[in-house]
Amino acid sequence: MAYQPKKRKMTAEINVVPYIDVMLVLLIIFMVTAPFVSQGVDVELPQTTTAETVADMNKDSDTPPIIVEVDKDGHLGVSIDNADMQRGLSLQEVLARVKAQMAAQPKTLVMVGGDGRTPYAHIIETLDALNQAGVGSVGLMTEPLEQ
């Protein structure tokens, strides 16, 4: 009896397992990198034609706001509980003081003020650092226009 090789039937199927593996790896990469892509600072703008005063914003709390100032050279200062402004602090010192006050009184407002000649980058760096430190809402200080 002569040996005859078995004839295999050709199939036209695509193995999708490698594609699923690639898709899952890409999904994980996008999920990991998505938080780093978001750029911007959440700011709640007033819905009126004039800005709200600190007293109006702080009517739910008896504590005075925490004020963080940035001068034209990027130097920081902080005032907590209406104390004198402590100037010449590093960003880490300001964040430590703000975190400590927020831990003691979580409803305390945080206001950031900057000199009119302060570069925009210094204000954004301060807002970003406060956001990363866990401060949910930050107000921007302005002075009313004199007419």
UniProtKB/TrEMBL annotation:
The membrane-topology field of this record reads: Single-pass membrane protein
Q: Which Pfam families match?
A: ExbD
Query: Which biological process annotations from GO are given for this protein?
Result: cell division; protein transport
* One GO molecular-function entry: transmembrane transporter activity
InterPro entries found in the cross-reference section: ExbD (IPR003400), Tol-Pal_TolR (IPR014168)
Quote the Gene3D superfamilies the UniProt record gives.
3.30.420.270
One GO cellular component term of this record is: plasma membrane
Give the residue spans that cross the bilayer: 16-37
> Where primarily located?
membrane
What the record says about family reads: Belongs to the ExbD/TolR family.
Subunit-level organization: The Tol-Pal system is composed of five core proteins: the inner membrane proteins TolA, TolQ and TolR, the periplasmic protein TolB and the outer membrane protein Pal. They form a network linking the inner and outer membranes and the peptidoglycan layer.
The job of this chain, per UniProt, is described as:
Part of the Tol-Pal system, which plays a role in outer membrane invagination during cell division and is important for maintaining outer membrane integrity.
Q: Protein name, please?
A: Tol-Pal system protein TolR
Species annotation: Photobacterium leiognathi
